Amino acid sequence: MINDIVSFLGQNIEMIYILILSVFVGVEVIGKVPAVLHTPLMSGANAIHGVVIVGAIIVMLNTPVDNILALALGFVAVVLGTLNVIGGFAVTDRMLEMFKKK
User: Fold this and answer.
1) Closest CA to 85 of 41, 36, 52, 62
2) pTM for the full model?
3) Side-chain half-sphere of 62: how many Cα atoms within 13 Å?
4) pLDDT of res. 20
5) CA-CA distances (angstroms) from residue 97 to 58, 90, 91, 92, 93?
6) ∠ CA 34-39-40, rounded to 5°
């Protein structure tokens, strides 16, 4: 078990470095955003989550019918991704309502 983990880490060390660096870059970028822009930034990020929905659907289409775990995880990804997209558009709509004349 431990040997498998060590060999996996050794084979994918470049990807692990990229993941760690992307976390640091993400924290720095988000940390520099003014508080006024957090809502539009998050609503846009939630709308981009549609890519996850498409990816989950593609993975589910290529998954064998007897692999229940993969199908269940794909279904959960589609449901949560859809909720995130709807939430992103709802936040954007509320934000745009603030700029309409009464």
Assistant:
1) 52
2) 0.57
3) 5
4) 92
5) 35, 11, 10, 9, 6
6) 95
